[in-house]
Amino acid sequence: MPLCHQPVNLISRAKHYAISKKMSEVISAENRMIQFLTRTLQNTRTMSEVAPVEGNVLQMLTRTLSNKSNFASNLFSVCKPFKEQIYEDLKRQAQETGQLFEDPEFPASDSSLFYSGNSQLPGTVEWKRPKEIHENPKLFVDGACSCDVIQGMLGNCWFVAACSSLAQEKELWNKVIPESEEQEWNDEHPENYVGIFHFRFWLFDGWYDIVIDDRLPTIDGQLIYIKSRDKNEFWGALLEKAYAKVAGSYESLDGGNLCDALIDFTGGVAETFQLQEEKYYENEEKKIQLFRTMRSEIENHSLLSCAISAASQEEMEARTEVGLVKGHAYGITAVKKVYIGETSLMSLFAQKEKIYMIRMRNPWGQKEWTGPFSDGSEEWEKISASERERIGLTFEEDGEFWMTFDDFCKYFTDMSICRLVNTSWFSFNKTWNEAVFQGKWTTGPKNSETDRSGGCYNHKDTFLQNPQYRFDVEADDDIVMVFLMQRDRRALRSKGIQHLVIGFHVMRVEANRRYRLHAIKEKAAGSEYAMSRNVFCHCKLKAGRYVIIPTTFAPTEEGEFLLRIFTSKANNGKELLHDVPTQSMWPCVSYPCLLTKVFVKGATGLEKQDRFGSADPYCIVKCEGERVRSPVCRETLDPEWNLTALFYRKHSDSLIKVQVWNSNVVMDTCLGKASVDAPLNPETILKEIELFGQQGQEAADQKPGIVFIEITTVDDLMTF
């Protein structure tokens, strides 16, 4: 019986069950806390129906509930076995049989080397285990550092640069290379070695554990792909093999994308800056802001890299006049302010001159920068010995070098940041609230639920047929990050299948929208469209509700995608599945017959509420039991709310009710109320309505202020 197909050890299964049972107990406790918070939030909202509760209370409860839910769902996120191969079981089977592990899912054959069947290697490939390459193999020699790995005969400098970045962050490579001490060759216990290793990558929908054997491709006894500066160190070569297994072959790693590897190593989100297109070198303000961003991201353990794009295949690997290589990915290892001159007690009280500098590494380990501040250049004489020691300056032919930030913006064309987004509420650093959706672009009968591949905004007739997702932004100018990822298609290259051209479009919608959009609205944000695995957008949005539409560029293209939305506060993210309200199962419950869109622009001349003659007003719009609240406008008697709401009405004579309140610390104060009818009329009607007190619309109870409102009522529920 083949080694890999032997029966799974029952003890192992029992252990897995026990661990899972303990996980379930912990998560059940978290779920009980979530239920308590949910009841508290519902009770608070019920109280606010009588007299609105200060918004901060609701926000705090909502945010806490969101964080607890996120914690419960992610605390014990399981690392799934890739291709159903469980490392512990396979290793135990190999130990019991005394046979070195051979991976049937990624055999030592040409099919693992090439998907095209064409070898351009200068010799015959032999697959050798590390002990056949070096008498004293090690996974790590003196730990991992950014200068360990060197590119081989494969055009995957992007992957090597990602390895260099990974090696700088111990917590990350402990995640990617788990149990490194247990996996290490142990001279005292040679029986532990059975030729099996495992690594972990984040692949589309979570972390996966990838098992490999340690047979590596060689020519004349030398590794042909990634190797280490220490000839007996093999973590880079084995990691590359695991990544090639995921991609389908080593050849599939030729000419990849650095951002892809960084995301797979971290589960983070990647953003690329076009340095030349955006003219950072010429814009001092943008340059300084970029420096601050990069320095902050380095401090937050993000992974950074850069490259000089090649205009043609002939330019690939070409060296520029300053020693940089086109088409190569360079890992960024430091971003610092460097002070010029001697450090002394007097200089602490003087304005010292400083320059912005950046440290990089070429994954080849050679061909370094030859411009100002290159290794051994005269510019370093201006930097004191103590300052050089502070920044860790060395002059070695290790591919690592420094340059000024000005030169960096001048010569490099692209810079990428892979952010490790913090969604844990157990943190003093900035935390994000994440909404995650897995979806598909599918084709089906026109206007059916399976007709979900309408193409980009250019195809206006079908654009809204794409999947739609809503999310909320609580505060004006809040930072929002959106990350769209399609399922990796590298393993399908042998069939001629490439990545789709993808992107997304964001529109601001009505504050209470619960159903799919049927009319295109003004664009609020969006991504560029690219034939890449991932696209990203980092933007500021005003408070309100938004709908994001992920699309392929062309209609009728099919594929899977992952959408991740990050906001500073709870975003109430949800997929919009239905076009209109669903029919009730009870025949006595009537169905909406009208759809009314209400736009409350603002108010003027409201009643003063403080000794400064001002107020903090907001409005509430009600209809048939549904209510929508605007944000608070601070210190004004003439607020502009720009609140839009939709009401699906079952009764044609139901009124639209508007209330204006002043936001207070404890109990909010009513500034006035009004009601207005909304008969069927597809034309937008502008009304100026006066405010009244609790007694209703009587002259004796009139309050200061006028509210400006627009109303549109239609009988087609799929109008807006």
Structural notes for this entry:
One of its GO terms (cellular component) is cytoplasm. This protein is an alpha+beta fold and 720 residues long. Helix content is 22%, strand content 29%. The protein is built from 13 helices and 31 strands. A hairpin with a 6-residue loop joins strand 28 (656-662) and strand 29. Helix 1 (10-50) runs antiparallel to helix 2 (55-74) and helix 6 (157-168) runs parallel beside helix 10. It is elongated, with a radius of gyration of 31 Å.
Topology summary:
Elements: H1 10-50, H2 55-74, E1 80-81, H3 87-97, H4 110-113, E2 126-128, H5 130-133, E3 149-150, H6 157-168, H7 170-176, H8 180-183, E4 196-202, E5 207-213, E6 216-219, E7 222-223, E8 227-228, H9 235-247, H10 258-266, E9 269-274, H11 284-299, E10 303-307, E11 329-339, E12 354-361, H12 385-391, E13 400-404, H13 405-411, E14 414-419, E15 433-441, E16 468-473, E17 478-486, E18 502-509, E19 523-526, E20 534-541, E21 544-552, E22 559-567, E23 574-576, E24 594-604, E25 617-623, E26 626-629, E27 640-649, E28 656-662, E29 669-676, E30 681-692, E31 702-714
Helix pairs in contact: 1-2, 6-10
Q: What's the main sheet like?
A: 6 strands, antiparallel
* Global mean pLDDT: 84
- What is the count of DSSP helices, taking H or I runs of 4+ residues? 13
Give the radius of gyration. Answer: 31 Å
Q: Which residues form runs of ≥5 with pLDDT under 50?
A: 1-31, 44-51, 53-58, 60-76, 343-350
Number of E-type strands:
31
- Using the alpha-carbon principal axes, give the shape: elongated
Q: Termini, distance in Å? A: 64 Å
Helix percent reads 10-25%
Approximately how much beta-strand content do the residues carry? 25-35%
Strand order of the largest sheet: 9-14-10-11-12-13
Structural class: alpha+beta
Domain C2: 577-693
Protein name: Calpain-5
Active site: 157, 328, 362
Domain Calpain catalytic: 100-421
